[in-house]
Amino acid sequence: MLARRLVQQLGGDLDRVLGVDEGQTETPLATRQETGVELRQVAGLTAGASMRLTDGMYQFGQSAANDRGLNTGQPEEIGFSLTVRGTETWIETGGGLVTLDGESLTETTKVGDSVIEVGSARFVVAIPRRPERRKRPRNAQSASEMTAQLPPIEVPDLADVDKTSQRSLPSILGVLRGNQVNPMAEQLAKLVRTRRAEDLDRLRSCHPDPEEILYRAKNGRTMAWDRLAAHPLFAQVSIAIGDMPWRPTFDRPDRIPTNAADGFRHLLSAPSVPLTADLRRGPLGIVGSRPARLAVARHVMTSLATLSPPEALTLAVMADEERATDWGWADALPHNLGGNEAALPVFLVDGLHHLADSSIEESLANGEEFGCIFLGDDMHQMPGTCSSVLLIDDNGSAVVIDNTDGTSTMGTTPLGISADLAASAVQWLRTLATRQLSSRRT
């Protein structure tokens, strides 16, 4: 059945968090042209996979007969259903542990571009991508477009809002029902919601999730290796997805009445956005169980290798012989150290005892320019030079600690991929490197 196939394709994390009710089956809707969507796991320790869903209703969740669901100790079930019609999808949940862009679901809701958070995993529903094009996609963003700040929201004149509200259906209904309607609050809330959606889209495109990274690696001729040393996001990589404070800017904030601001206070956060580490600011520390930290490290390494070419960035792993099998997939990386003195070297240190046997800490203290990723099972083992630390707990959630500003972001979802997906990404990048080398020779 569909639910079991979904578990098999999206990995054990979905199995653990959602479970599958063998008594539930997809319910076909009325016959129509099937276009379908893709359900993609964008966060969690087994992220990066996707599955096609055609027209129909798909139910996933925990039931009394299912022993694979997450035991939360709470009365709410973890479960949801997706209804697909063409390229549109609606979600419905029977419990309070499933959210859509950080908001609890109380009724059937259209998914759109929002992120579905389910336990320690996050998903998006998207239209299947078209086949690879040889040319750069039309909607591809330039470096300046990625980092450009959106213009301030234009605060409308109160007189203009009043004129519009006299003809608007919500205002008329509000008067008929005896409710106090604040036209300025309604208008500002609409403007703020639109601007927040634009900002969320920009933040998520700047720092791709594991599924997007794998897609770019596979379609490398048009999608990979666009971040050189001069790129504003060079050597930055997503490590988790979480919620961040968000504040809109206005061109005339003094014209916003106090009571009108109450209409958009609930929008002052950015849900399910990438939390990143900048290796140029200092090392990244990844702390957690060995399977968890390896999964995140694989995503970090494949992200760096997909976003930046070997002439801009090189990668090397320092690990004991008994741990070498965990890094066999990385042997074929075209970014292996050597041959390019201008590239930024990045070292992944698997086992902090290596620091005592190397000059890494001394070099960092002297301000030498290179990147480091440290893996460990104890927060106290992490060197004080770490600018960012990802602390993964046993339940699969994480805390992102930013030592540069002293902030911590709780309740995030780490980004990790399997060794098989990492190996596939490396082979795609290896093929890209071979093609580029051949084209240069000819």
Structure in words:
The chain is of the alpha+beta class. The chain has two domains: 2-126, Tumour Suppressor Smad4; 188-442, 3-Layer(aba) Sandwich (Rossmann fold), CATH 3.40.50. Helices cover 28% and strands 24% of the residues. The chain contains twelve helices and 19 strands. The protein has helices spanning 2-10, 12-17, 143-147, 158-165, 169-176, 183-206, 210-218, 220-223, 258-261, 290-307, 360-365, 419-441, and strands at residues 37-43, 50-53, 56-61, 79-85, 88-93, 98-100, 103-104, 109-110, 116-118, 121-126, 236-245, 269-278, 284-287, 313-319, 344-350, 371-376, 388-392, 398-402, 407-414. The strands form three sheets. A nine-stranded mixed beta sheet has the order 12-11-19-18-17-13-16-15-14. It has a six-stranded antiparallel beta sheet with strand order 2-1-10-9-6-7, with helices on both faces. It has a four-stranded antiparallel beta sheet with strand order 3-4-5-8, with no helix packed on it.
Describe the structure concisely for a colleague.
The protein is α+β, with helices and mostly antiparallel strands.
